[in-house]
Amino acid sequence: xxxxxxxxxxxxxxxxxxxxxxxxxxxxxxxxxxxxxxxxxxxxxxxxxxxxxxxxxxxxxxxxxxxxxxxxxxxxxxxxxxxxxxxxxxxxxxxxxxxxxxxxxxxxxxxxxxxxxxxxxxxxxxxxxxxxxxxxxxxxxxxxxxxxxxxxxxxxxxxxxxxxxxxxxxxxxxxxxxxxxxxxxxxxxxxxxxxxxxxxxxxxxxxxxxxxxxxxxxxxxxxxxxxxxxxxxxxxxxxxxxxxxxxxxxxxxxxxxxxxxxxxxxxxxxxxxxxxxxxxxxxxxxxxxxxxxxxxxxxxxxxxxxxxxxxxxxxxx
Length: 317
Hints:
This protein is of the alpha/beta class. The chain has helices spanning 39-46, 106-126, 143-154, 167-172, 188-201, 212-225, 250-253, 269-283, 300-303; strands at 2-6, 14-17, 27-36, 58-59, 63-67, 73-77, 89-93, 97-99, 134-138, 159-164, 180-183, 205-208, 233-236, 258-261, 292-296, 312-316. Helix 6 links the parallel strand 12 (205-208) and strand 13. The radius of gyration is 20 Å and the shape is elongated. The termini are close together.
């Protein structure tokens, strides 16, 4: 069968032949129809992601959409290694599949599930969001952040604050539910000052897709604001800006900040799948928006290096 193969860590996937999967008891054989390209898939292919196994060759892709032998359409996560989602077929534990609603098409489902589940799981599983709370989304202008704004509102956030460097994209978030926007155009103390007012007014949860300097200043501003009635829950999801931060130790000792992550390892596959199911069921009735670019899987070698934070690339099989 045809598949997108990583032959050696650090090398881009190639389109080639791979033995068809032979599912064992408790696994489903899935005929794949669509699989989305995301940061985790890129990281695992390069060997840089913390969940990388280090065994090659393997098929890339951590999730996708396909059909079971009985014709049922499903969304699935974490295929059984060395199989991935970017292939004509894959095999997946039966517990890693959920049925898709009829009104949701394959490409949209493949595009929206992964970025949607990241914020859904972060808000429900990690932050334990309560109705009416205020959520700040750091890095809200990318595909994942835009969904996070919509999902936070859907899950009951009373107020959503969005940050981002792209000022035009940031302004557009008000139509998706952002009540306040903060452009990340300042640096250092000026950026920290811009964060102080909303923390004085009250922020309950911070979802961070960026890490790096903006997260440093958010943490410092939260400490300086001096709100200690309830801990501010910081949930780290992505590292688009940087892999490391420099954080003064008093920030954690002198405040009630709770700093946690949300990803593979801190959230179980079962809970991630539950989050994905929530996103997929709500996508059409809530009119969640995500820009998609559908391309044939056979073009993976030319498309792999092309990246856009505004549109989700979906490979169709």
